[in-house]
Amino acid sequence: MRPPTPLVPVMGGDATTPRMFLDRVRTAVEERLHEIFEQVEGDTTAAAADTLPMLHAARDLTLRGGKRLRPALMFAAIDCVEPGAYPHAAADVGAALELFQTYLLIHDDWMDNDPVRRGAPSVHVALGRHYNNAHLGACAAILAGDMLCALVHELIGSVEIPGPRRRALVHAFGRMEREVILGQCLDVTLNEDIQRIHDLKTGSYTVRGPMLLGAAIAGASDEAKRAMELFAEPLGLAFQLRDDILGAFGSEADTGKPVGGDFREGKNTLLVRHAMEHLGATDRAELQSILGRRDATESEVLRARALVERSGAREHAELVVRAYRERCLSALDSPALRADGRALLAGFVALLTERTK
Amino acid sequence: MRPPTPLVPVMGGDATTPRMFLDRVRTAVEERLHEIFEQVEGDTTAAAADTLPMLHAARDLTLRGGKRLRPALMFAAIDCVEPGAYPHAAADVGAALELFQTYLLIHDDWMDNDPVRRGAPSVHVALGRHYNNAHLGACAAILAGDMLCALVHELIGSVEIPGPRRRALVHAFGRMEREVILGQCLDVTLNEDIQRIHDLKTGSYTVRGPMLLGAAIAGASDEAKRAMELFAEPLGLAFQLRDDILGAFGSEADTGKPVGGDFREGKNTLLVRHAMEHLGATDRAELQSILGRRDATESEVLRARALVERSGAREHAELVVRAYRERCLSALDSPALRADGRALLAGFVALLTERTK
Questions:
Q1: Which chain B residues are Cβ-neighbours of A185 within 8 angstroms?
Q2: Quick check: do A17-38+52-220 and A225-357 share a fold?
Q3: How high is the mean pLDDT of chain B?
Q4: Where are the domains of chain B?
Q5: Which of A132, A244, A260, B247 has the smallest count of CB within 10 Å of its CB?
Q6: Which of A45-54, A217-226, B7-16 has the lowest mean pLDDT?
């Protein structure tokens, strides 16, 4: 992998609002992603041009990604410890986080039989159409994920930071990667322990993992890392819950996914669990008869949504989100973290838990 | 990942025969693999014990592996440049190569719908039985591969060698990983360019990749690396051809796979291609009618084998193997490689191209 071109500086106290900070991170990370895909496109064309549809599907999904939230949390963690530390390494790790997410999404979408991702056909569907064969599409999608995973590790393995930080980085990445795979395994095999699945699957690589990668780059103390973990856990759970609320009640325009897809998939969310526990027997039976049916009609899905709403699950979920938010904010009250970084993270809490998409 | 326990020394001029050398490598690598799986088993039990069937399937296939050929080629490459260089790093990279191979085999077997691997059910089949659901088995198998890939990169990322060697190592691993994925993509999408598929898929990670990893650990000169590449290319091709010959004419006891599986799969080998070009029209039509039929009977498969034999494909393939072997041996004639390492590699050439299993 070639070294990156000089970077737009991401950090610094003049990025006063979280939104401005997010914009700068997005610019830096997307610039790096474009460079990476350009180089890999060249390598792939030289080695096996016939495989370009696979690479392009992986690239398109990556570049269709929106918020670049995970790199932003990583950069914010750096700001909590040593603002501006190793900007090239940080941009590479930020790009690696986005490639890692695409890799996971591609494999997950095939496993969950999810036809749409980020407002367009998911990779196994797009490649299935290209090869006019669903199994070949699935194979090429798995390989597209595998290819992104290879790129992730070329980036992580090539990061140039002092030895102890590099070791911490590799360790944090490995922990995150293994956790998210275990979480997905629990999820796909229909394990009942939702909280554990969320912690392993969403918590680890949405908030905790990226922050600990930032901590590694910035050479954070054990105390700073502990504060970040205490902050990350409730934020990850709140983020997941907001995702579930949007999945149940959001519009397709907001989420990029068909309305009520979570109901058709029979996704075992806190909302559904609450509804099943609080609805009367007749409503519960009706809800049960709709959940998990891929062929449920539009009006059935809307009926499921109304039943979940009636159970009080939505208000309950909003209360839980609020409680998580309080826990996040009090974890930030640590002298091991720099004040400007803490302010930024506090802004993120609002942004992530109140978001509408 | 914890550091390894002190190692049985692998290298040294007293391992006079390639077989003795292979035995020592096997001992060192398998010891490290056991340590790694023990640690990961502990981590996994703590994080999500319900996922242990996935880990165990991945572990069992890895430990069922036989020759540990790839690590041996890596150690031999080290012997060509700086015998005994960084033995702990070498053992870790050797273990990573075996984990990498298991990862690829698991994903490939699902893609190719291969029910048997190394004399037992392949991972997607074993997990499909465990979960009593073929799709869940496939998902858990893909995740088992993903998990091994994560371990591979924890090992590669944690290797402690001087900076320039580490960079060369990460670069060589990344190149190998990307090439083998491209090769598999060509293979699975039924590309006609067999030679390119072999070079990318088998050549890269059977011979060239492992040797360049050894070269990186030993700090090889560009000239030494070039000599290794010149040696690796024909050896990889000869190895693949031997594999195809065994796949067509070997017994189940030797190969660990059902007789004639390659015919039932319709595998596009040099043997089949030669037969199709040299058989008369009637024989060709008969062969064509058997190839690629999963439900072909035992006697049909034996008939296909007889037709391929009659075409002269087997003698032709043996001639080609011999020509590759000559190219290997002449590439070894380089002053950039140490004499004892070259002797070892020359022994490997015979072992690998004349093997019967």
A1: 48, 51, 54, 140, 143
A2: yes
A3: 91
A4: 17-220, 230-357
A5: A132
A6: B7-16
**Does CATH place domain A17-38+52-220 in 1.10.600.10?**
yes
Enumerate the β-bridge partners of residue B120: B117
Superfamily of domain B230-357 in CATH is: Farnesyl Diphosphate Synthase (1.10.600.10)
Cβ-based contacts of A188 with chain B (< 8 Å):
136, 139-140, 143
Greater confidence, B189 or A267?
Answer: B189
The beta-carbon neighbor of A181 closest among B147, B178, B184 is: B147
* Mean pLDDT value across residues B197-224: 94
Inform me whether the C-beta atom of residue A50 falls under 8 Å from chain B C-beta atoms: yes
**For the whole model, what pTM was predicted?**
0.91
Q: What is A225-357's CATH number? A: 1.10.600.10
Instruction: Name the band, by pLDDT with cuts 50, 70 and 90, for residue B76.
Output: very high
Q: Is A111 on the interface with B (CB under 8 A)?
A: yes
Is the CB of B186 inside 8 Å of chain A's CB atoms?
Answer: yes
pLDDT per position as a tens digit, B267-282: 888 899 999 999 999 9
Say if residue B280 is exposed, middle or buried (CB neighbours under 10 Å; 0-12, 13-18, 19+): exposed
